[in-house]
Amino acid sequence: MGMITVEHLSKRYGGRTVVDDVSFTCPPGTVTGFLGPNGAGKSTTMRMICGLTPPSSGTATVCGSDYRRLPNPGREVGLLLDAGAQHPGRTGREALLLSALAMGVPRRRVDECLDRVGLSPAAARRRVRGYSLGMRQRLGLAQALLGDPRVLILDEPANGLDPEGILWMRGLLRDFADQGGTVLLSSHLLREVEAVADRLVVIGGGRVVAQGSRDELLADSGALVRARDPQALRAALDRAGLPVRATTDGGLLVGAEPGAVGQAAADAGVALVELRPAESAGLEQMFLTLTAGGDVRKDGK
Amino acid sequence: MTVDSTVPPRATARTSAGRSSGTAPSDHGRPSLLRLTVVELRKLTDTRSGFWLLVVIALLSAGIVTVFVLSVPDGDQRFDNLFAAAQIPVGLLLPVLGILLVTSEFSQRTLSTTFALVPRRHRVVLAKLAAGVLAALAAVVVCLATTTVGTLLATGDGATPGAWSTSAAAILGSAVFLVVNMLMGIAFGLMLHSTPLAIVLSLVLPVAWSVLGELVTRLRSAAEWLDIGTTTAVLVEPPAAGDLTAGQWARLAVSVAVWVGVPLVAGLVRTARREVS
């Protein structure tokens, strides 16, 4: 049973399909990384989950209910959809106070959350106009945590954070999930979510191109191989019937385990420079292909 | 503001995320309209622009009373005349406050937060209307205060006959006048979603209609019913401010239905499902 359940969600603007039949679930106690290049449909999907964008078809539920039917959604779901969407004339603390007032959490919770995301009382008294993107992200995260929710939905929360901030945020999200919470966070950088996500949903051109547990997706990604003579290697692999999934800078990504690749190279007498399990190189390659507008399909399940 | 004290304190997220293993429906009740109204009232005052607009409204009310006291013949410096004058700038600027209460959420993109916390969007609109009514009533009090000070200054010698003459009707008239102006601003903001467009159209359209009614003979009787400038003027103009006949109330009601009701309904429909970014 998922705390977030998305079923056949689609969004069309005129003739353009931005989100195309997207389905996935986020079980409690997990962090789900929602990955895709910019413009892949991540934000639109998240906005449809939260009832801010009406879907063209399909459904989404959060905590077992249509988001718009949650009586006090701020107490169930913490949202960070757009760190820039704060009134520049309000202080950071005032922005949180308004939300706290609306969802009925005590005032001291505002200071707790500010403290938790590392915004000092002095910073919280300043107007948001003067905040850096990183500070806005922290403020947005404080707002998401304010209602003490059991689900977090965060759109590109690492944008604008420095490396230390990213590390800190990973720890926070990991803790949240370990306490039984559910996290859905999007990113256009594989490296950023790889370290914290238990599950990955990869989206490109509005469609889900891969999803499953991180370990499955990373394990299943074949071998990375390089030879001094790439053409000879390619021919050897083709002869052995091993599928070459993609080309990287000077190497080949092969949909087979390294042993089989090495054997094929040895049989053909091709000298290898490098041979190793592809690990995230597979996902990364898929990612690059997505960004370049290619069409790839892969199912980790 | 003590609204937040009605909710029992909860554990911090660290410990309470643990309750989250199921998808059982929550025990958190939806926020009351009162609570949401308090939020909207706070939004009126917690930004620099909102705060200064309120200050300017009060200062203009005081300013026009001062001008009145300095320039009008002594015999006319009575409470009822001053009260009417004090409301003119307030009546003009309250719609702007109402417009900003709605449109600033679009222009500053805070609407996604507002609607994420209260997905039943009509409740946000209701809270904004309630906050608008309360702000307009507060404006009545401000006008009464500036008028009282003005009358004291102007008639300190006690020589003006009937200096303090006013009526409950005049105060009721003022309340209706300012509330209608405020709600019209909110309705236009809600219909148009854009600050400049809403300000211009809410000022220009009623005047244009009024001029049209003057020029086109066949429209004259319709204009009489729909010219909100005329139908609301009787609410504030002395000596019989707020003392409306049944016919005048009817005309007021019809003009309010057109200039407040129609844009409000159109705005609700437009805002209900619109994508918020």
Compact overview of the structure:
The complex is a heterodimer of chains A (301) and B (277). Chain A is of the alpha/beta class.
How are the SSEs placed, and which strands pair?
The complex is a heterodimer of chains A (301) and B (277).
Chain A: E1 4-13, E2 16-26, E3 31-35, H1 42-49, E4 57-62, E5 77-80, H2 92-103, H3 108-116, H4 121-124, H5 133-146, E6 151-155, H6 163-178, E7 182-187, H7 190-194, E8 199-204, E9 207-213, H8 214-219, E10 223-227, H9 230-240, E11 244-247, E12 251-254, H10 258-268, E13 272-277, H11 280-291
Parallel strand pairs in A: 3-7, 3-8, 5-6, 6-7
Antiparallel strand pairs in A: 1-2, 1-4, 8-9, 10-12, 10-13, 11-12
Helix pairs in contact in A: 2-3, 2-5, 3-5, 9-10
Chain B: H1 13-16, H2 33-45, H3 48-71, H4 79-107, H5 111-117, H6 121-154, H7 168-192, H8 195-215, H9 220-226, H10 228-236, H11 246-273
Helix pairs in contact in B: 2-6, 3-4, 3-6, 4-6, 4-7, 4-8, 6-7, 7-8, 7-10, 7-11, 8-9, 10-11
Question: What do you see in this structure?
Answer:
The complex is a heterodimer of chains A (301) and B (277). Chain A is an alpha/beta fold. Chain A has helices at 42-49, 92-103, 108-116, 121-124, 133-146, 163-178, 190-194, 214-219, 230-240, 258-268, 280-291, and strands at residues 4-13, 16-26, 31-35, 57-62, 77-80, 151-155, 182-187, 199-204, 207-213, 223-227, 244-247, 251-254, 272-277. In chain A, the strands form 3 sheets. Chain A has a 6-stranded mixed beta sheet, sandwiched between helices. A 4-stranded antiparallel beta sheet of chain A has the order 11-12-10-13, sandwiched between helices. A 3-stranded antiparallel beta sheet of chain A has the order 2-1-4. In chain A, helix 3 crosses helix 5 (133-146) and helix 9 (230-240) crosses helix 10. Chain B is 73% helix and 0% strand. Chain B has 277 residues and is mostly helical. Chain B starts with 12 loop residues before the first helix and ends with a helix. The interface between A and B is large, with 61 and 55 residues.
